[in-house]
């Protein structure tokens, strides 16, 4: 069966560079299906609301993650770390502990910034959060996109830089391969 990958963007901005990168992925690697999983409607995490299925946006968000074979997170870096909106979303997906949407879920990380360091620090924190939630984060491989404004056509919302396109395609292919390795890790 064709695999399905969930794309989660860690920015709520309409003209987000990271959203542009996420939107480029299906065209770069068409061997799988994709689903955009929005975090925009999630309330702030509150343990008092985290009962049963939780609030409707949370239920839909968790279900979307459970429906896909793996998630690719495409996120900016804020103040040398994970954007609050993304951390909030991952916290909702990390409970209830025994049946959490992130539990044993293959995950890959991509990040884009106008800066020169390519979201290294943000990705370290996202990885740490995902590992705490017992997701299987693709090891070793990294996908950092620096000076992103020079690599996209912002008006047409296209990733134009050929080298970045090639590396991103390779990263997604490695991630798809990683999804197949995960059952062996569980065995
Ligand atoms: C509050 C805030 C903090 C930021 N901190 C960083 C940072 O630590 N490192 C970085 O590379 N960019 C930083 N930026 C710049 C973002 O990378 C830039 O705004 C980027 O376009 C956001 O991603 P988006 O285009 O997907 O929304 C920061 C931006 C904001 C609003």
TrEMBL record:
Protein name per the record: NADPH-dependent FMN reductase
GO molecular function, one term: oxidoreductase activity
Native source organism of the sequence: Paenibacillus solisilvae
EC number from the UniProt entry: 1.-.-.-
UniProt entry tagged with the keyword Zinc: no
Main enzyme class: oxidoreductase
Segments forming domain NADPH-dependent FMN reductase-like: 4-147
Keywords linked to the UniProt accession: Oxidoreductase
Top-rank taxon, per record: Bacteria
Family designation: Belongs to the azoreductase type 2 family.
């Amino acid at each position: 069966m064709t695999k399905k990958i969930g794309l989660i963007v860690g920015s709520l901005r309409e003209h987000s560079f990271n959203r542009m990168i996420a939107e480029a992925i299906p065209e770069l690697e068409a061997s799988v299906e994709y689903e955009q999983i929005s975090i925009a409607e999630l309330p702030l995490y509150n343990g008092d609301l985290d009962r049963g299925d939780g609030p409707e946006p949370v239920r839909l968000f968790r279900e979307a993650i459970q429906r896909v074979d793996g998630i690719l997170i495409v996120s900016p870096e804020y103040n040398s770390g994970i954007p609050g909106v993304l951390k909030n979303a991952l916290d909702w997906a990390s409970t209830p502990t025994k049946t959490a949407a992130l539990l044993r879920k293959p995950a890959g990380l991509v990040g884009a910034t106008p800066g020169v360091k390519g979201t290294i620090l943000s990705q370290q924190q996202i990885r740490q959060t995902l590992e705490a939630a017992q997701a299987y984060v693709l090891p070793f491989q990294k996908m950092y996109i620096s000076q992103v404004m020079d690599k996209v056509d912002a008006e047409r919302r296209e990733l134009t830089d050929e080298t970045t396109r090639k590396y991103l395609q390779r990263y997604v292919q490695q991630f798809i391969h990683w999804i197949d390795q995960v059952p062996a890790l569980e065995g």
